[in-house]
Amino acid sequence: MKLATLKDSTRDGKLVVVSKDLTRCSEVGHIARTLQAALDDWAHVAPRLQRVAIGLETGSQPTMRFHEHDAASPLPRAFSWTGGTGFFDGPRDAVSVVSNAPLTSSVQAAVIVDDTEAGSQVGGIVLVMLAHSVLEDGAPVASTFSPVAVTPDEIEGWDKGNAVLPLIVSRNGTAEKTTETIDFNAAVTAAVGGRALGAGSVVAADTEVASVVAVGDVVRVEMNDRTGHSIFGAIEQTMQAR
Predict the structure, then answer these.
(1) What is the chain's mean pLDDT, rounded?
(2) Which residues contact 123 (CB under 8 A, 6 or more apart)?
(3) Structural domains counted in the chain
(4) How far apart (Å, rounded) are the C-alpha atoms in residues 109 and 128?
(5) Where is the domain boundary, 48, 68, 88?
(6) CB contact set of 138 (below 8 Å; sequence gap of 6+)
(7) Which of 47, 88, 141, 142 is the most exposed place for a label (fewest CB within 10 A)?
(8) Residues 215 and 195 reside in one and the same domain
(9) What one-character-per-residue DSSP string does 36-85 give?
(10) What is the three-class DSSP state of 146?
(11) Nearest to 144 by CA among 108, 181, 175
(12) Containing domain of residue 157, as a range?
């Protein structure tokens, strides 16, 4: 199942279910208006959303065109995020930075968890997405997530929280493809430690691709399956001087 949040006049946007090919979506306000609302009652809401996802693929569900440019981060804000700021830009929003500050682009996978007890060795991973953070002098100033968050079963090769995924990061159109083993469960376990995580907490995986960027650079982040199709949609952000 693939989920996205479309921008509207509210702070948290509106939740939609997205087709596997990322071209169509269905509004699900009658089930949960926002992703956080869905996460707050995931055990009951997820099966209903899954039925909508099936209807999208079989043609039995009303749909509209899905445009990645209309998407906010799946969670526009989160109760907890281990990678930086708690408010998130849209995946195609420009990033405002100080023009003469040392800038670093940090890319990694991230997971959204259900309620997770302190000391958990498993972690209640419910959704997976990509994350991009921009740091000024080592301090995070902006974070964003991929247009779409997906349930783990959408990721080929997912095995007990491990997946070998080709992560494509490009700067100004020049791409570098890196294949990393991302241990999602280990990331959650490390983040939990002696504390609990509430539903909707976002945890960064321990694999990170970092590069130096400058004002005017365009960073694009995407992850494809083995057939070359985008799993999460693309993050594409321009570094813009304040």
Answers:
(1) 90
(2) 111, 113, 116, 161, 184, 185, 187, 188, 189, 192, 203
(3) 2
(4) 7
(5) 68
(6) 102, 104
(7) 47
(8) yes
(9) HHHHHTHHHHHHHHHHHHHHHHHT-S--EE--GGGEE-SSSB-S-BTTS-
(10) coil
(11) 108
(12) 77-241
**Rounded to an integer, what distance in angstroms lies between the CA atom of residue 103 and that of residue 98?**
9
Is there a single domain that holds both residue 43 and residue 163? Answer: no
Neighbours of 44 (CB within 10 A): 10
Rounded to two decimals, the pTM is 0.94
Q: Are residues 93 and 211 in the same domain?
A: yes
Among candidate residues 68, 93, 115, the one where a domain is terminated: 68
Largest CA distance in the chain: 53
Among residues 35, 78, 106, the alpha carbon closest in space to that of 197 is found at: 78
Q: Position of tokens 């804000």?
A: 77
Whether residues 95 and 166 share a domain: the answer is yes
Instruction: For 135-193, write each residue's pLDDT tens digit.
Output: 998 888 999 999 999 999 998 878 766 677 778 899 999 987 777 777 777 777 777 77
How many other CB atoms are there within 10 angstroms of residue 58's CB atom? 8
Residue 225's Cβ-side half-sphere holds a number of Cα atoms within 13 Å equal to 15
Q: Considering only CA atoms, which of 160, 55, 39 is closest in space to residue 27? A: 55
Residues 40 and 91 placed together within one structural domain of the fold: no
49's tokens: 């959303």
Cβ contact 107:131 at 8 Å: yes
